[in-house]
Amino acid sequence: MSGSAQCPRSDLHFDIHHAGFSDCSIHYLEIKARCKICDKRMVFQGLPLGMTPHHPTGALDGGEARLPFLGEGEELTGKVIGFTGRVVDFPAGVDGGP
Ligand SMILES: [Zn+2]
Asked: What's the CA-to-centroid distance between 40 and ligand 1, angstroms?
């Protein structure tokens, strides 16, 4: 068993970044996490790829969670942009896929 597998992850460092935009009301909290003991990066599970004001998303490798939020009672206004996606497995040697 490796050292990192035995690590209790009892001391995690969270890197939290707030992103807001002047032209729309949505804000995002972007979260990364790393173990201070073994330096292993934490991978967030179950988040769809992307960045959208409509639901939480994550980075392609799971290394960042993105949580959209508004002030209580506020509406989503302004020029909203974003994207979502999913990872698909391409057969070897096939370009483009479905
Ligand atoms: Zn650790």
From this structure: 6
